[in-house]
Amino acid sequence: MKTFSSLLLTAVLLASASSLQAQQKRVSPHETVSTVVDGSRVTISYGRPYSKDPKSGEVRKIWGGLVPYGKAWRMGADEATSLITQQPLMIGSTTIPAGAYTLYFVPNEDGTAKLAFSSALGAWGVPVNEKNDVARVDATKAAADKDFDQFAVSLEKNPAGGGVIKLSWEKTVYSVAFTVKK
Q1: Running DSSP on this structure, what letter comes out for residue 110?
Q2: Which among 4, 154, 159, 15 has a CA at the least distance from the CA of 85?
Q3: What is the pLDDT of residues 84-94, one digit of tens each?
Q4: Hey, which residues does 31 pair with through a beta bridge?
Q5: 48 CB-contact burial (10 Å; exposed 0-12 / middle 13-18 / buried 19+)
Q6: DSSP label at 130?
Q7: pTM given for the model
């Protein structure tokens, strides 16, 4: 019960910070995705930028352009992307404790990438202070079955057990598999 109360308080504080930041001008639509994996709810809230520049309408270069290689990217638009998990998550041999986190992403030109979990909540998105990282985990890159004009995050159940966080944009999908630690 104490864990649930702590998570509820964290969610309320995060929502309050987000509503204050929303007073800054949002450029992109926002979405929240949530699913229950092995009895634990996982929720991600993020901005959904388009491939086209909102001011000029020109198609932007996403990977290696708008999303720089080798540098932290806010994983969306406007305020920082947030993740809330009711139970600890296992990603490979890394444990992400139950709680709320800011997510950001670091793609590299060679196709490797890291998904970072930060304890710094309530930021507008960039710059990122890496001293607040709780963990950085490897992401797997694959070609998408279709073209994504708008950045999308999905949470899916993994047929092998656990779940998968997927980041999709243009013709690329990055994924991070996780299990719920009991």
Answers
A1: T
A2: 4
A3: 999 999 999 99
A4: 46
A5: middle
A6: G
A7: 0.85
Cβ density class 117-154: b for 16+ within 10 Å, e for less: bbebbbbebeebeeeebbbbbebebeeeeeebeebbbe
Query: Domain boundaries in the chain?
Result: 2-180
* Cβ 48 vs Cβ 74: under 8 Å: no
Distance CA 52, CA 54 (A): 6
Residues 92-129 pLDDT 10s: 999 999 999 999 999 999 999 999 999 999 888 678 88
Return d(Cα 128, Cα 148) in angstroms, integer.
26
**What is the per-residue burial (b if ≥16 Cβ within 10 Å, else e) of 71-81?**
ebbbbbbbbbb
Q: Are 34 and 155 in contact (CB under 8 A)?
A: yes
